[in-house]
Amino acid sequence: MFILMGFTDDFDLQVVLFLLFLAIYLFTLIGNLGLVVLVTADARLHNPMYYFLSVLSFLDACYSTVVTPKMLINFLAEDKSISLIGCATQMLLFVTLGTTECFLLAVMAYDRYVAIYNPLLYSVSMSPGVYVPLIVASYIAGFIHATIHTVATFGLSFCGSNEIRHVFCDIPPLLAISCSDTEINQLLLFYLVGSIEMVTILIVLVSYGFILLAILKMRSAEGRRKVFSTCGSHLTGVTIYHGTILFSYMRPNSSFDSNHDMIVSIFYTIVIPMLNPIIYSLRNKDVKEAMKKLLKEACN
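Below the sequence we write its predicted structure tokens.
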């Protein structure tokens, strides 16, 4: 049994935080699941780019759901405990979804490269026989990565304090309270997260390198504007997400600061899933038109 200490003991502040994060969570669910419905309902969005976007949206809704409901309960409850199985399950799920998002963002960058660099062969190069295995492989890789960390973390002894100075069962705060030697866990965290970050960021950089070459060859200003609009939103999402992941996990355990790490963890598990529907829809003409059409039909 562990106790999630959270942000503060001040009840008035906890109520304010409860209302704030409840609003964020509801916005996250409405925004992300709304995008899934939009892509499913509108025939104009039935292409690989929007299928990837709908998978990302569904993943973000699940990602936030793994962490937020328990955190909201703890804001108002006196008993902030979480069972060993509950803690392990939470870690397994959020690491699976977080890693899957890393791979999915890389796959989306490759999809944009295929669409822009060779648009005539896009439907062939990114057929269901290609994009479905890419999505499935992203989830499998995420699950394998999460399983390694979950087994390694909960194979440790927790004979001292059971108070986790965090709002959910993240890896660094659990390693911080273990009375076992965590050197192997630290190495696993550094090398596995580092490898995944390097591979996925490299795919993004190479893909956008080729996209930049394609843009430079374009003669149409409208074509360039459309490419910048589509790719700019994806690059924004990639930069924010990978930046927070690198800050959280690519540091020695000695530099772990519970308050700073809680804020960063909240950012990539709760705030980024809320921002993604805004990032990917506000600058996308097709999504905005599909949204207007759906709202018009709903009103009529």
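The first helix runs from residue 11 to 41.
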